[in-house]
């Protein structure tokens, strides 16, 4: 949760601010997961709470605590006295940066939600939106692929599901971070971090739009 929450503003906030972003992001994640369970929204991987709501929080947080000096460094702005530099609202900012972040959140969500609503409506019309209750209970690994993805041997016996998924996640994250480090070294870190911020916006908006649009369709009789 913390990694997602700090991605959008990693290049313009202080280290202590990053800790706050991650801490609040964890609370947001837990709260949204609980809300989804109550509303019976099907998101077993918690993708929307993680990349959607925590990502949106990170974008909003940047508008609160973006540092003037870091903005100058990251974007090559003229920081001479009297020049206008957008900065976080809590750094004596005038609110323009925060307003632009909010507009970005709303715009990307509206775009993704609209497109996904059309797509999922078509899938529902041709009866491809959801699998049957029997297949869902059995699991797609068994019902669609003829076998289990992980061999469960019980807690503490062999590798098991938790070990396999943890190893897979750890390997994926390590490869992603290694790639990011290489890009940062070859493309100047400010540019690489801006790219990561853009990817974060796309990720959270996609997950959020998909989850809520599916819920909206399910509510239609």
Tell me the layout of helices and strands.
Elements: H1 2-7, H2 15-39, H3 47-65, H4 68-75, H5 96-125, H6 133-138, H7 140-145, H8 160-187, H9 189-218
Classify the beta-strand content into a percent band.
under 5%
Largest sheet: none
Rounded mean pLDDT is: 75
Q: What's the helix-strand series?
A: HHHHHHHHH
Number of helices: 9
Gyration radius over CA: 21 Å
Helix coverage percent of residues?
over 70%
What form results from the Cα inertia axes? elongated
Low-pLDDT runs of 5+ residues are 153-174, 197-207
How many strand units?
Answer: 0
Number of domains: 1
C-alpha termini separation: 35 Å
Structural class, please? mainly alpha
What does it look like?
The protein is mostly helical and 221 residues long. The chain has one domain. 71% of the residues lie in helices and 0% in strands. It has nine helices and no strands. It is elongated. It starts with a helix and ends with a helix. About 15% of the residues have low confidence.
In short:
Helices cover 71% and strands 0% of the residues. It has helices at 2-7, 15-39, 47-65, 68-75, 96-125, 133-138, 140-145, 160-187, 189-218.
List keywords for this structure.
mainly alpha, 221 residues
